[in-house]
Fold each of these.
Amino acid sequence: MTSTAGSAGPTDATTPPPSESGRGPGEGAAGTGRLRRRFSPAERWVHRTTGILMLVCVATAGCLYVPQLAELVGRRYLVVTLHEWSGLLLPVPVLVGLASRHFRADLGRLNRFFPHDKEWLRAVRRRDARPESRPAGKFNAGQKIYAAWIAGAVLVMLGTGLLMWFTGFAPLVWRTSATFLHDWLALAIGVVLLGHIGMAYGDPEARRGMRTGSVERAWAKREHSEWREEDS
């Protein structure tokens, strides 16, 4: 979100600020206050619940496919049950989140690419790390690509998992193909999730935004320069 410079008068504490500035109560003109409502409580719940289910799914998959982990954990039937049900429940938080207008609005933003997104990708290819070379709205192009990829991967994993689970409803060749695709896509998801977690830990302010719903104005201006108040 961008902000406009202004003078801090004595009525700032009681007079609602103009929407263009994105300035909340108690925030000064220097842009050092908090930027409210990057993510609503519903969006944070969806992200947190989906993350927990995904981690359970990946962890149990590791216990099923890595012999050393299988021996360490044991209780294969329990691990299989946790894996199956965490996978089945993965789409549920998103479906519940559709009841929130903020969540629906952000899904729409994630589904759109703008000219500044192409500029962001070009800067990544050039390995240009300067913030001004990577303009972004509320979500940058990398976040949009990740969201689209993980959503598609979850649906494929759900479909192939069901084919593997209900063995009596599909021919052998379907089940064999589903198992092959499920296993290799699971590996790809694990690698991508590690990258996602690593990038999140490299950006404490982004984590704070997902944890509390607000971020620093300076960070928003630097990392999401095209993010306007009307996008909140």
Amino acid sequence: MGKLIAAIDQGTTSTRCMIFNLRGEIVGASQREHRQIFPKAGWVEHDPLEIWEQTQRVVAEAVAKLGRAGRDLVAVGITNQRETTVVWNRRTGRPYHNALVWQDTRTDRLCAELAGEAGPDRFRARVGLPLSIYFAGPKLRWLLDHVPGLRADAERGEALFGTVDSWLVWNLTGGVDGGVHITDRTNASRTMLMGLESGQWDETMLESMGVPRAMLPAIRPSSDPNLYGHTLPEGPFGARIPICGVLGDQQAATVGQCCFAAGEAKNTYGTGCFMLLNTGTEIVHSRHGLLTTVCYQFGDAPIVYALEGSIAVTGSLVQWLRDNLHLIDSAAEIENLAYTVEDNGGVYFVPAFSGLYAPYWRSDARGVIVGLTRFANRGHLARAALEATAFQTREVLDAMYQDSGVALQALKVDGGMVRNELLMQFQADVLGVPVVRPRVSETTALGAAYAAGLAVGFWRSTDELRANWGVDKSWVPTPSAPAHSTLYARWKKAVTRTFDWVEEP
């Protein structure tokens, strides 16, 4: 079978371990879901210990499926749900609190206080991000303010902070017995605590957020030939293997899609939807509601940046229809249900469950279903839910064009929802450009594998990675499709109905 690379893909709803060969093909995999914890309306949490337990299980299962080939693993890469915030004790390894998930809204008032008269763009020039409930820095500040004893422990260096990548690397490399406390620049760029130009923790931001420096991980490249550390022989891999690649999930998908040239873009359809446009080594500050973020850094090469459009709810809307409304029994059923009707019947579903992200950044928004008549049925709701993903993607693409002047010729897509062919055709119609699905659609895990493999010379260059990429299927726009104009205009009208729903008490 030859040498292999392992990738841990720790996502919002599940954790996977996937193993790749030199051609970027999946040769082994395991996946397990974890609980979604909702203590209050708008609050979303995960149990870090459960995530670590599930990580150990999927790694052990994936390696066991390989048999003796498990000994051929030469490196481990990690990709993770970004912004989700974990704090734990370095001596006990116990979390102080459940992880605050990127979708969590409890920092709304704190963000308003931090913004002050300067508004949500107070720090945008420094960190590339607006003040928003989305990012890890305000979540960490909330924990420091509300968990008894945490701030004192943090100032003494007893409490550690990290996004989920840091939590996993620390545990995989020994935990309380010498665990390595690091993060990479893509994840650090999502905290509001890292200077975008320096690529280091920014003292002004730490002071403004009230975060003790002692609790922060060291920032390293996304692909690091110097290695972060090694797995332990007694750990889930059963061997000493270098960990040398870490990327936030959307940056990992960008790498997995081989978007290495400025002007190349991808869109990932998962729990949320995330479009990234590679801007090269140039920092492009958005004027149209996008984020400026780190795309990746390979070794000691310059940091590569990106514009990003982040959409909070896409695949999780289908999950909500399944779990909360019981409209379907499995996510896969949504496509067949949507096919029972010819169009949306005038129904539009704007899933602003956690407010609206790009390009609006409205934390006061909440979800709405509009255009209901006695004619509407289950099929129309299903179709409206899928169309919401395509419409939101169009809004982000429009903003990217306004910021960059780059008109995409085609959109590379990946993630769980790209198996839905009705959605992909509608997406092409709404955008007016072809939509292209690669042969390996699990590009998030693949990107983490690529980062680790480049670090150890498993792959020698990005040209080798490009050679692995190939088209599985493309969808071209339907001529004169109303989705591009008429339906999109109605969607924009529906979005305005979500504004100003949450008011200050």
Amino acid sequence: MAILQVNDIHVYYGSIHAVKGVSFEVNQGEIVTLIGANGAGKSTVLNTVSGLLHPASGSVVFDGKDLKGVAAHKVVEHGMAQVPEGRRVFLQMTVEENLEMGAYTRPRDEIMGSMDDVYRRFPRLKERRRQIAGTLSGGEQQMLAIGRALMSKPTLLMLDEPSMGLAPILVEQIFDIIRELHAGGTTILLVEQNAQAALSIADRAYVLETGKITLSGTGAELMASDKVRQAYLGG
């Protein structure tokens, strides 16, 4: 069953037509990935789904509800959370304060339980819970950004370039975390330039080029595609 349906969205930045009639869906329990070169429109699509941008036309339907005109902070209340590109943690706040910010839609009596869940998943964050987020390493900040999103108990977790700027061993850790979240029942929409890593864990995938979807299929099908191999997997 489709939990997210993106229907023929067109998005502009002024006169620039950044997203041109993109349609796709994410079913309950899937990992779906959008891959493509830098500037292909991947982050614009994700920001439109999460309500940070609004399409000029087309629709985003989440859990049966058309999100037209719904503010981004209200989208979170509907059960969708985004881990933004570049992590965007609150640098002057502690780890714990960042996590609390992720739980602003939740009843206060549920927050400690959710924080315990995040600390179980990310022991490093528990060790550093009183530390100022701006002093964490890039990998730790990425864990914090994911943990902050999980504090809202999302039905759909969206990750925008989670491996960006990380050392290979940390990229592996982040993708292990994504697998674990998926195994635990979280539906995931992943935007990622590391096509190899993204396709290896995706149930289904879409290739975005200059604002349009040019290919779609299972992760395995796109991994085997000559076009994808040549363009994104180094031949």
Amino acid sequence: MSDVVLKIEHLVKRFDDQTVLKDISLTVREGEVIVVVGPSGCGKSTLLRCINALEEIQGGKILLNGSSVSRESRNLSEIRQKIGMVFQSYELFPHLNVLDNIILAPTKVQKRSREEAKVEALALLSRVGLLEKANSFPRQLSGGQKQRVAIVRALCMHPEIMLFDEVTAALDPEMVREVLDVILGLAGQGKTMIIVTHEMQFARAVADRVIFLDEGVIKEEGEPDQFFDHPKTERAKEFLRTFTFERKHTHS
């Protein structure tokens, strides 16, 4: 068995008096791709934000390769560097060109030489089909291009795990594919990833394991074929029916 990269034990997250995540336990092994699905508002994005210590947790623990990830961790900034996070909203600096957006953190935070970071950034841009955009500014890019730059920026930090939060939600349908292809490529290279998505066909194609989250708990988990073809719980069946209904309508 490959090594455990991330271990979540009995995680509890509350906002005021509302408990958003209730007793979540999850183990992610090296090279594994976990896809988290579930209805809007069920806590999927919050789960990712807790893993990255962007949210404080009220119970349980999160361990990245044995180190505790929490706001209290003395070496939190070091731990955070090992967790690549790609958001729905790209978060690129508008005043920096693509290349400078990518090499800012490797040079400032990890103190790597500009030359070394640049060589790697250009190689990664080439891999996602954006080499010719290295000197462009974010405003000159399409949504799909910005999202691919955001992925390259995260990869350039050499994270041990990548988190993707609804990265195609804000994109036009024809741009979705180019971003999903990049993520599929990363899965093929054995990157450890947790992906929150509404794209069910993509989830099925990329996942080693699907986690179905609802009302702050893991209602079901399993291999993609088993989850999509033979869901065990009534709630999962009901959730998946909404997607088959949409598909029928989009083709009519």
